């Protein structure tokens, strides 16, 4: 054998040793429990992380079987996983089990493993790793502790603490310091710190203590200290200087950690590194090493599985080059903090680009091991948390929607509760007021008073309708419309509404898609928006109404009120008025929110607009800035049935009276009395019934035809629809008119909002009632 052969073998052996040291260092410092088991499920090897996770040292785990350590309810899962893996000669992925901690509690661990095969291809065991996924709320609760508790915990913490004066003499130490070194407190107070250092470190302290006082901070300094019994320990120091208000030195605050055992463990880890190389390649997280220049020096092979990159494509490249641009500053800051002190550990979250160009959310946990000759950089791991992030976004979105829905529901309950009784009372007031007006000459003083009563009652009825519109409980009769024709029909009224100083411009869109909406709701929307726009304009100005087709593409949005994809017709109302700030826009559609002076606005106009658009399956967008005007964009879903462009023929004038017989059913006495009077004055014969039973009795006993049944919808014992069915058995030719003061959702349950069914909403005017009765009687 030549000298070159010997030299080659020596180089190969040295390379193997380097590789061995690298993998041993990774296994030892890994935060995951890396293990090996035989085919019976008994542990052959565990890395030191098991003690942190389960409170048991590796030697305590060795020889124990899985089914002895997992929760009794998970034993079957263990046996099933082992059985299947043996049969299929594979491992398992993401197996979640509850493991018993040494203190008797259980920890949730996520396991990944690979089968170990002999030369004959038989399974002889498994290599794998477990990650602690126990709910992190414990640590969050700790972080939320009050300051008093934090101080108490710090004072009694196991971390050794010392305080020195300006001469380097002890002022204070905690119990952990005394326990670690074996001294009594009185033996240390006033003693020079250098007296308990190993002689090799005394000069180092004398030289660097003045620098420490000048700089004000020391991080990651290591000393060898002498215990009372003469033994020595290696410690890791962090310290800060406390100064008075004018910057003069007061005392030091230092903590240290005994890293003697850690150093021994690191040395032991180097002996097992090569054996664990396969485990590293198959653990669930990507392992990385980043040098002090921020360059990738190692990427575990499983990065190809999670992110599509091969390790060699990234090694030698900047570690942060694939971080999302919006996250790069935070990632840079985190890496910078890691490099500030040896052994510092830090966790952060950011988006990382896969090879195919899309991004995944990762949780990066790194430890500064620059001082470790086998690592010489930050050792970290990437954990894919994309699904968790998406779930958080979705949860926040749902919570926002739920809060808004609860607010809507509260207003809805208020409106629904008020609507019935309030509408009945308003109906009585309106009816009697209008009948009184018919009997009083306009010249009499009381005539104006009666008119004011009628106006107030109608305004009250409008207020109720606005509440119901916001809560989406307004009684509506949607029709397929061409919005252009509907808006054009309102322009004359809108110009009167906004006054002569404000110009109204109309920009209709071409080939507009049809929508299905109640025309009265479009009237409400335009009236409210144009009045608001007029009030926002100081003096002369312009309001522009426009329409156009709009398509919303399928998008992923973090907006809590993101629109669904599809075709919409957009109705815009734009003004050049005062505009609004973000704070105003945020509350714009809340009921009773107004920026107008007291007495000049109810705060229900825009809430009504919002409710109407939502009731019709649409959405609203608002653009506004102070001094730059406002644009409201209302989107209504496209309806695929063509709109009826023919104008309805003007009905021939007909008398709002007659000689027909009407069976009137109303369980509210005041309403029953009022409607009876109205119908009598219009010439009708009225059979008045205070409930369904009396109505059926009158229907059975009345001699002659009954032409119309006019009944309340919601009544005790029997609703209006059921009553109509019973009456038709006695009078097959009878026509029906339903009335109610309840909200649309209540009425709809009784089927009286269906097409072809005659219905009148309380409260109603005398003329509206008379015309409706006449229309029902004349229906073929």
The amount of helix comes to: 40-55%
How many distinct helices? 27
The CATH homologous superfamily of the largest domain is named: Histidine kinase-like ATPase, C-terminal domain
Distance between the termini: 118 Å
- The rounded Rg comes to 41 Å
How many domains, as an integer? 5
β-strand amount? 15-25%
CATH topology of the largest domain: Heat Shock Protein 90
Strand order of the largest sheet: 2-1-5-4-3
Average of the residue pLDDT scores: 83
Spans of at least 5 consecutive residues with low confidence: 646-655
Total beta strands: 27
SS content category: alpha+beta
Shape: elongated
Please report the first level of CATH classification, the CATH class of the largest domain.
Alpha Beta
User: Strand count, sense and closure of the main sheet?
Assistant: 5 strands, antiparallel
Q: Give the name of the CATH architecture of the largest domain.
A: 2-Layer Sandwich
Protein name: histidine kinase
EC number: 2.7.13.3
Domain PAC: 93-145, 219-271, 346-397
Catalytic activity: ATP + protein L-histidine = ADP + protein N-phospho-L-histidine
